[in-house]
Amino acid sequence: MNHPDLLSRFLSYVAIDTQSQDEVEDFPSTAKQLHLASKLKGELQDLGITDVVVNQWGYLLATLPTNRPAPQPTIALMAHFDTSPDVSGENVKPVLHRDYDGQDLPVSADGLVTLRIADHPYLATKVGHTVITSDGSTLLGADDKAGIAEIMDLLTYLVTHPEFPRPTLRIVFTPDEEVGRGVDHLTVAEIGADYGYTVDGEKVGEIEDETFCADSVDVKITGINVHPGQAKDKLVNAVKVAAAIVELFPRDALSPETTAGREGYIHPHHLTGSVETAVIKILIRDFTPAGLVEKEDYIRGVVAEVLARYPGAKAEVLVHESYRNMKVVLDRYPQVIEKAIQAIRASGLQPIQASIRGGTDGARLSFMGLPTPNLFSGGNSFHSKYEWITLEDMGKAVEVLRNLVRLWSEG
After folding, report:
1. 150, 176, 177, 393: which is the annotated catalytic residue?
2. Model confidence pLDDT, tens digit, residues 79-95
């Protein structure tokens, strides 16, 4: 199938820069996310959906009522506006690689950004597909504008096929998911659903029912600043203390670049400082709370070891909870996963229950009282200039969503 409407919709969304920003108090962190929210509000109203709101925080919420006589659970379908702060999302130029031949795929014109099969073996399974990438100067934005496009395509189908059975659907599009704040100003009561699904996953057929547990750690170091000309035996350089702490973290373990599967990590991702003060920001990930505690204790041990080498220096280790493994909640609601598995099978796919080496809005929502696993959108290599998706896989995601709403309409 060509899916021309799905394609044009997706291309129009990725053309809008919605990159969120870390370390910003405003919500949303960037006003440009509201440009996409406004566009989607208009498109939903053009479909005849009257209950559409973009609220004061930038959340878009809409309702498509059921067409069934008997009551069924209300289902929320969710995706996020923003793209990652890690790679530019400004002036995205999508490139369509039609009838893909299964070989290495140049993304940038100069070949410096190339999807090599050795590094991206899953791409080789997409022979004959229309592969969509950026031009190599930005990310693509399939995370999560593919999810938005797929939900919008589903809604278009449901409105134009009023006989197709459906429960009441709540549509929720969120800002700032990529900076971990996607549901900071959203309540389960506002969503108004019994169960939810984020459409924010990757490979076709996947349903993700498990996430990392996540904390962030700030190590705040205080040194002693003295004029360099009179500094002997007096000055304690906080920058050097911070560097010594980072240097003690293992190079061959416990980091994102050296772990996979169910292995957690310690990830120092931001360091600022001067002679007098320095701050190391660290992400901690593990699939269990006990694993988080082990890693946080490890950091405290490293800090203590370094401080012993720098008399006069002081340090605080501050831990901030981010989110927890949503499987703890989802295991209590097996019907939510089972419906998704049935919908994937009904679409001719093999369901793959997977764990996310990351988190979603659904992880926090699950603990807030709305069980919300994550469904695939078809995207790959998120947060990078190597990001890609195929039109055919996006079409499969829409098919799964159709089957999902039909199954929920049956109670």
Report:
1. 177
2. 999 999 999 999 999 99
